[in-house]
Amino acid sequence: MLHVSMIGCGAIGVGVMELLKSDPEVAFDVVIVPEANMANARTVVSSLAPKARVETRLGDDRPDLLIECAGHHAIEEHIIPALLRGIPCMVVSIGALSEPGLVEKLEAAAREGKTQVQLLSGAIGAIDALSAARVGGLDSVVYTGRKPPNAWKDTPADGPFDLANLTVATVIFEGTAREAARLYPKNANVAATLSLAGLGLDHTQVRLYADPGVTENVHHVEAKGEFGGFELTMRGKPLAANPKTSALTVFSVVRALGNRAHALSI
Ligand SMILES: NC(=O)C1=CN([C@@H]2O[C@H](COP(=O)(O)OP(=O)(O)OC[C@H]3O[C@@H](n4cnc5c(N)ncnc54)[C@H](O)[C@@H]3O)[C@@H](O)[C@H]2O)C=CC1
Ligand SMILES: O=C([O-])CC(=O)C(=O)O
């Protein structure tokens, strides 16, 4: 039985608990949310993981695994202290690592705690192929993210672009993955994940579109290198609870937890 503490109880966290509620190999003991969200979280957690406590921090608990499904701030706030205590962690808010020095800090904390932090693939595929291709040397990785206009609400694109009235696919950002992840913390985690697996945050080119012609979150990657090349297009269905987030992100967390909890890992 894998004893898990989870940070976040939003679209991803709730989706994960729903899918794992009948898995006898995974037990949620603690769900961590900010003070202001505790009442809401208690209502959800009482039906999906009735044995779990809702807290604002991990405290003295020592789970087998701490998983982050919360947002960029949760890395400094919860993941680094847990790693220093030797608690294995998983992270979905990979874009947080666009902050200069944070990747190194995360690695140092895991090393000091003699444990490991796993960066999950989330809404994108082929991270295994890309990071293997890096071993032989990569020449270029280009990522294009395309989401319906409502997915860009409350982001830096909301204002400069009249999102509600767009009639054609519109480039709202073009630049490095580091800048994309910094400016769009809820929409460009994929850009950061591809960078960390591939050419790095400063050498991965990113273009983001608000596109009234799509209903899905479309991720396109083109990679070239010593291995040859690949092109990948993912058409992720957005979650009803949060149109910025694709359903595959939830499934990737469930897969990762299953791989730790079950006898067979794939
Ligand atoms: N790697 C990937 O492909 C993807 C990563 N993400 C990341 O996952 C995050 C969560 O996504 P959703 O569940 O859709 O968001 P959401 O907004 O529905 O839920 C966020 C939850 O985390 C909690 N939270 C926020 N800050 C916190 C903190 N500092 N400490 C503890 N709890 C905190 C909130 O109270 C809420 O329960 C996003 O912000 C994004 O960074 C999202 C989609 C794809
Ligand atoms: O869920 C998605 O489609 C991707 C996403 O939000 C991100 O990259 O942050």
Q: What tags apply to this protein structure?
A:
6-stranded parallel β-sheet; 5-stranded mixed β-sheet; globular; Rossmann fold; 266 residues; 32% helix; binds 1,4-dihydronicotinamide adenine dinucleotide; alpha/beta; Dihydrodipicolinate Reductase, domain 2; binds oxaloacetate ion
Give a verbal description of the structure:
The chain has 266 residues and is α/β, with parallel strands linked by helices. It is built from 8 helices and 13 strands. It has helices at 11-20, 38-48, 73-84, 102-112, 127-136, 177-183, 189-197, 247-261; strands at residues 2-7, 26-32, 53-55, 65-68, 89-91, 117-119, 138-147, 170-176, 205-210, 217-225, 228-236, 238-239, 242-246. The structure holds 1,4-dihydronicotinamide adenine dinucleotide (NAI) and oxaloacetate ion (OAA). Residues 123, 186-190, 217, 236, 244-246, 249 line the site of oxaloacetate ion.
Tell me briefly what this model is.
Pathway: Cofactor biosynthesis; NAD(+) biosynthesis; iminoaspartate from L-aspartate (dehydrogenase route): step 1/1. The chain is an alpha/beta fold and 266 residues long. It is 32% helix and 28% strand.
What's the arrangement of secondary structure elements?
Elements: E1 2-7, H1 11-20, E2 26-32, H2 38-48, E3 53-55, E4 65-68, H3 73-84, E5 89-91, H4 102-112, E6 117-119, H5 127-136, E7 138-147, E8 170-176, H6 177-183, H7 189-197, E9 205-210, E10 217-225, E11 228-236, E12 238-239, E13 242-246, H8 247-261
Parallel strand pairs: 1-2, 1-4, 2-3, 4-5, 5-6, 7-9
Antiparallel strand pairs: 7-10, 8-9, 10-11, 12-13
Helix pairs in contact: 1-8, 3-4, 5-7, 6-7
Bound molecules: 1,4-dihydronicotinamide adenine dinucleotide (NAI) and oxaloacetate ion (OAA).
Residues 123, 186-190, 217, 236, 244-246, 249 line the site of oxaloacetate ion (OAA).
